[in-house]
Amino acid sequence: METFLLRNPDIKVAGCIYGAPFFEFAEHNQINVFRRILAMTISAIGEEIVLNPIMQAQWICHEKKYWQKMQGVDGTQMALISGGVSVSMMDKIDDIKANYDKHTLPVLLLTAGKDKVVDNKGAREFLKHIKTPESKKQIKLFYNAYHQVHKEPQYKA
Fold first, then answer.
1. Is 10 within the bounds of a domain?
2. Count of domains for the chain
3. What is the share, in percent, of the chain residues with pLDDT greater than 90?
4. pLDDT tens figures, 84-124
């Protein structure tokens, strides 16, 4: 999506705001060659086949009512990601990294200090490599937040 916006002259975008940006998988969810090929195969067979993410529902946010709705019987997050979405996420990371030099728009990254879903290292790498002037790059860290900062009770307006 990012590079679509950047390459499309008919769409006027003044800047980009990314919340808990997915530029890198979290350490426990790294995608090796085998897992990538497996996800691509599953996606080719049935794009809507659901893959269960390897994470606890509580990693989404501190708002207990919210993550309880997402929790499976075994305490892990209910399966929400299809094979097609998984492949799309992997492609997105590759696409962003291949097009760092085309990103010149102002950027605001909203990151969660306790995020276990995505790795904030990827967000910092993104800021380091894009061609946006330094004065137009900003990162805001919500120290006590899990992945969905906007669901965190202490940060709600």
1. no
2. 1
3. 13
4. 777 887 888 888 888 888 888 899 998 999 888 788 888 88
Please check whether residue 21 is in contact with residue 122, taking contact to mean a CB–CB distance below 8 angstroms. Answer: yes
Q: Which domain holds residue 139?
A: 16-155
Q: Where does residue 143 rank: exposed (0-12), middle (13-18), buried (19+ CB within 10 A)?
A: exposed
Burial of 30 (0-12, 13-18, 19+ CB in 10 A): exposed
CATH of the domain at 112: 3.40.50.1820
Q: Are 60 and 36 in contact (CB under 8 A)?
A: no
User: Is the four-CA dihedral 98, 99, 100, 106 of positive or negative sign?
Assistant: negative
Given the structure tokens 């097009």, which residue do they identify?
99
For residue 27, being part of any structural domain is answered with yes
Mean pLDDT of 62-74: 67
pTM for the model:
0.72
* 136 lies in some domain: yes
Query: 34 in a domain, yes or no?
Result: yes
Query: Could you tell me if 90 and 36 are in contact, meaning their C-beta atoms sit under 8 angstroms apart?
Result: yes
Residue with tokens 């916006």: 5
Q: How far apart are CA 115 and CA 60, in angstroms?
A: 8
Q: In 3D, which of 141, 102, 156 has the Cα closest to residue 21?
A: 141
